[in-house]
């Protein structure tokens, strides 16, 4: 893997349009375009993953899996900033790797606790990362949005989200509560914008 070249997406300096064009080329099966994306983004992805995982072998595998996923899923990119899309993939691959390692280290006699049934709000969020809910998510502040994505859309526990985002567990809980309030307000505003006369008989 090439050495890290800082902590910010170098693609930002070359223009979002370039990244979008590269992803369209990757979707058509252009391996050279994937190589350019790797050169442009692997450095900062590696730096962020390293801050969240101390095992260099896991980081290497996650980075490789990230670009394998990009190769397979470039068609699913829906526009917007490519760096954020790449980080979502990398973060999910990291969580998958950490969970797999935790399962391997867990004694066989230990039974995993059943997950609580998701609330109606969580089911909506989990199924509608884009569309109206996605538009509402875009309206809340980035630090709240990333907590909501981690804990609801990605299904992480508070501890996992804290480890992934590099913040205390208490901060995760506080931001999650604020994020839900802001999301409800954003959804209400979207509904009002879409149906301004909806409340009138």
From TrEMBL:
Residues 37-103 form the RNA polymerase sigma-70 region domain. Residues 101-120 are annotated as: Disordered. GO terms for molecular function: DNA binding; sigma factor activity. Pfam families: Sigma70_r2, Sigma70_r4_2. Keywords: Sigma factor, Transcription, Transcription regulation. GO terms for biological process: DNA-templated transcription initiation. InterPro entries: RNA_pol_sigma-70-like, RNA_pol_sigma-70_dom, RNA_pol_sigma70_r2, RNA_pol_sigma70_r4_t2, RNA_pol_sigma_r2, RNA_pol_sigma_r3/r4-like, WH-like_DNA-bd_sf. Residues 101-112 have a biased composition (Basic and acidic residues). Residues 132-183 form the RNA polymerase sigma factor 70 region 4 type domain. Signal peptide: none annotated. Coiled coil: none annotated. It comes from the Bacteria. PANTHER family: RNA POLYMERASE ECF-TYPE SIGMA FACTO (PTHR43133), RNA POLYMERASE SIGMA-70 FACTOR ECF SUBFAMILY (PTHR43133:SF46). Belongs to the sigma-70 factor family. ECF subfamily. NCBIfam families: sigma70-ECF. This is RNA polymerase sigma factor. It comes from Streptomyces jumonjinensis.
């Amino acid at each position: 893997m090439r050495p890290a070249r800082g902590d910010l997406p170098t693609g930002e300096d070359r223009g979002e349009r370039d990244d979008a064009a590269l992803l369209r080329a990757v979707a058509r099966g252009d391996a050279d375009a994937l190589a350019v994306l790797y050169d442009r983004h692997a450095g900062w992805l590696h730096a962020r993953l390293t801050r969240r995982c101390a095992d260099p072998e896991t980081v290497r595998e996650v980075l490789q899996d990230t670009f394998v996923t990009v190769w397979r899923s470039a068609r699913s990119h829906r526009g917007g900033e490519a760096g954020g899309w790449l980080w979502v993939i990398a973060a999910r691959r990291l969580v998958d790797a950490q969970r797999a390692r935790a399962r391997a280290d867990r004694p066989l006699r230990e039974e995993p606790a059943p997950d609580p049934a998701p609330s109606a709000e969580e089911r909506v969020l989990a199924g509608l990362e884009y569309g109206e809910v996605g538009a509402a998510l875009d309206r809340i502040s980035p630090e709240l949005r990333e907590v909501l994505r981690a804990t609801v859309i990605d299904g992480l526990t508070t501890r996992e989200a804290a480890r992934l985002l590099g913040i205390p567990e208490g901060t995760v809980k506080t931001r999650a509560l604020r994020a839900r309030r802001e999301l409800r307000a954003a959804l209400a505003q979207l509904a009002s914008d879409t149906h301004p006369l909806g409340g009138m008989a």
